[in-house]
Write a structure and sequence with these properties.
238 residues, alpha+beta, five-stranded mixed beta barrel, three-stranded antiparallel β-sheet, 6 helices, 33% helix, elongated
Length: 238
């Protein structure tokens, strides 16, 4: 057993015993980390509110056989402004829920950590851009190796007559490969999604009338590949 210094963004927590809580962190070097915060559910906890979801913290961990124990914690970034309105909280909740679904314990998650950090910083900076969550999910799909094909047919590679989107095929499909299957696409939607996938989260292109379609299709694609429903996203996309 030893002490280990680490950092992470709090994804969630759940009760453990009468007064403790297991905190789930995303660490850039150790992936998903579960650690016990003793007494954190007491009114006068020495940790205060420093272990709430979305908070970026430095922690000193006592390594245990099954669960580590948090002995010290300091806040790196609190993201206090994003907590001031429901839209930003729901967007942040979707980000951490998606990250939680794809991250693994004991595996380095540097790219996932940086993506989540950029997403939270974009939310902290101001109101939610209508395309921010869709852009985040597209980037996360790329990080974990399931980026959708948006510029050529996912079946044959053609760049002509890309009229539908197939969840099973992994992206847009041409009329020859999939004349009936898949989601019929609005004009300009794939180009819009491609721009979101390549733009910085803090500098997205102006939102247009395709934002609703973008989040709807991105949600279906990500949930299909995760094989689970993102509850926070259901509140955004209805």
């Amino acid at each position: 057993m030893a002490l280990r210094q680490d950092q992470g963004i709090v994804l969630r927590g759940y009760p453990f015993g009468e007064a403790d809580k297991v905190v789930v962190l995303l660490s850039p070097n150790h992936g998903k980390v579960r650690a016990v915060a003793k007494g954190v559910r007491k009114t006068k906890s020495r940790f205060g509110g420093r272990l709430e979801p979305f908070t970026h913290v430095d922690v000193l961990l006592y390594e245990g056989r099954n669960l580590d124990t948090i002995t010290q914690v300091s806040v790196v970034e609190a993201y206090s402004h994003l907590r001031l309105d429901l839209d930003r909280v729901l967007a942040a909740g979707t980000m951490v829920e998606a990250i939680d679904a794809v991250s693994q314990e004991g595996a380095g998650s540097h790219r996932q950590f940086l993506l989540l950090q950029r997403g939270l910083r974009a939310l902290e900076a101001g109101p939610v851009h209508p395309d921010l969550v869709a852009a985040f999910l597209l980037k996360l799909a790329a990080v974990v190796g399931v980026a959708p094909a948006l510029e050529t047919c996912a079946e044959c590679g053609s760049d002509r007559d890309l009229l539908r989107f197939s969840l099973a095929s992994g992206g847009v499909v041409c009329s020859r490969c999939s004349p009936e299957r898949g989601v019929k696409l609005r004009v300009g939607l794939t180009e819009h999604l491609a721009r979101l996938a390549s733009s910085e989260l803090g500098d997205l292109p102006p939102a247009g009338d395709l934002s609703r379609d973008a989040i709807g299709l991105t949600r279906r694609f990500v949930e299909y590949h995760l094989e689970q429903r993102l509850e926070s996203l259901s509140l955004i996309d209805g």
